[in-house]
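2024-03-11 09:14:02 INFO worker-7 job=invfold-0412 stage=load source=structure_tokens
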């Protein structure tokens, strides 16, 4: 999708390694392919309009919903962002975002199943951009998922891109921004739970030393600017994103890191960085189902 860390030298030749990394077999994964929309599910009950003053409503939204749950029965949709036909952003070394998304989402789904979340489904969608958004929402709603997590990798607006040459190809990059980011929609019927789930993921990523992408709150981002809901762990408000507002369950979009940033692209393809993200999601889900006493108090502070 659309943003940017740095450790490894930008000139390192990694194109062959990156390409080989994403040549994976998906046949062993429990996937929910969304080529056609399933029959329309029964509508979830809509939340009642709040009569609270804005300040009280904001405070209520910060409180985590009661989330005590059985991991074995929790239905989790792990959505692979974009499709083969509409593969998202292009990395600094000319690898489609979809390849990064598919690889990381597969690892997340496998990890969750191994941790006891047996009802985890990997969602792989076909088709062009806009229709695929509608189909993936219909698929998640049709499977009556309890949680929806969409996996993406970031880029930047065109105005921030620079030219460079890599292995004989004239490509684009931007090393200006880096980091992960989390997005939720206030139009989602389970906004409070979405925000709570996003916070749990963000706290785990932060605990591992990862930084969030802070540029989305800046005026220079123009139409890509978003309200920063949690400046501690990098959660943004993205109300009109279809997969966040139309899903009838708590929904979070994770931009795992920037692939237009030359150094972070290499990091995002590494097993070490992927392990950090995968384990963060798994730990967050464990805390989601078994909230610790101090979690509520911590949420009130943010």
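2024-03-11 09:14:09 INFO worker-7 stage=emit residues=302
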């Amino acid at each position: 999708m659309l943003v940017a860390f740095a450790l490894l030298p930008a000139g390192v030749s990694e194109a062959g390694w990156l390409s080989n990394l994403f040549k994976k077999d998906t046949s062993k994964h429990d996937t929910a392919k969304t080529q056609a929309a399933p029959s329309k599910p029964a509508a979830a009950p809509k939340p009642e309009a709040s009569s609270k003053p804005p300040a009280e409503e904001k405070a209520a939204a910060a409180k985590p919903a009661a989330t005590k749950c059985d991991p074995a029965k929790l239905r989790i949709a792990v959505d692979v962002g974009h499709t083969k036909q509409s593969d998202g952003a292009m990395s600094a070394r000319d690898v489609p975002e979809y390849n990064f998304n598919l690889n990381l989402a597969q690892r997340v789904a496998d990890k969750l199943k191994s941790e006891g979340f047996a009802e985890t489904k990997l969602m792989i969608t076909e088709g062009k951009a806009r229709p695929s958004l509608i189909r993936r929402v219909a698929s998640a709603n049709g499977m009556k998922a309890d949680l929806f997590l969409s996996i993406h990798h970031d880029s930047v607006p065109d105005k921030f891109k620079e030219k460079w040459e890599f292995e004989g190809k004239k490509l684009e990059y931007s090393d200006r921004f880096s980091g992960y980011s989390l997005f939720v929609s206030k139009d989602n019927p389970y906004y409070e739970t979405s925000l709570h789930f996003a916070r749990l993921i963000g706290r785990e990523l932060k605990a591992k030393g990862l930084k969030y992408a802070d540029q989305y709150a800046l005026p220079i981002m123009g139409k890509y600017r978003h309200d920063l809901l949690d400046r501690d762990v990098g959660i943004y408000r993205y109300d009109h994103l279809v997969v966040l507002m139309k899903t009838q369950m708590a929904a979070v979009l994770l931009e795992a890191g920037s692939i237009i940033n030359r150094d972070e692209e290499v990091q995002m393809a590494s097993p070490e960085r992927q392990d950090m993200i995968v384990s963060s999601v798994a730990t967050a889900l464990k805390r989601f189902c078994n909230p610790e006493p101090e979690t509520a108090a911590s949420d009130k502070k943010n």
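2024-03-11 09:14:09 INFO worker-7 stage=report msg="Confidence is low (pLDDT under 50) at residues 3-17, 22-27, 36-66."
2024-03-11 09:14:10 INFO worker-7 job finished
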